[in-house]
Amino acid sequence: MSGLQRLAFLTTPLFFRINLSMFKIYAIVMSAALCFIAMPRTAYAQHQSDNAAPNIEPVTITRELRLKREPRISDFTGLPVPRFASLRYDEVNGRAGPGLDYPVQWTYRRTGLPVLVVRESQEWTKIRDPEGDEVWVARHMVGGRRTGITATNAQIHVNPDDTSRIIAEIDIGVVMDLADCRNDWCHIRVAGHKGWLPLNALWGAGATQ
After folding, report:
1. In a domain, 60, yes or no
2. How many domains is the chain built from?
3. I need a surface site. Which of 7, 18, 59, 186 has the fewest CB within 10 A?
4. What 3-state class would DSSP assign to 166?
């Protein structure tokens, strides 16, 4: 074996042992450093765990929506039911059922009286009057003229505003023509007067439910 080769053979283990020793020293130093670093991190993690918010399962809140029933379209007139209408004549018999064989329960003597159409057949219409009674009348007795009747004493205003000028005062039970209703007010015509009346003072306008 040449001297060069032997030198290499003798120095290799020495170099290896030196590196191994240095590695051991490096490993010891790094282990100590890691322990030093890990201790506060572990303590912090434990602290965070101790103070963490409890695991609360989400609660689903269900709100029931009450929707108004949409009016259906009549197979006989093609108009929505229920809907407001009015009586076309000054004498209309209201019967217990849809036919002449049923007894007369009420006789209405006011042209233009507002009614609520709640049901229809080919020749008869079931109505609800301002007092809440329901009867059947011949279909041709009911017209599309829009009217209302005062449900309380009220004041007719020049504009749809409580602070606007008052045109006239009107008593309960007065029938009038309805021109337009919006924003809780109705534009009405009665006894030569035109003006605005609060919607809550009328029967025959607004929601039909």
Report:
1. no
2. 3
3. 59
4. strand
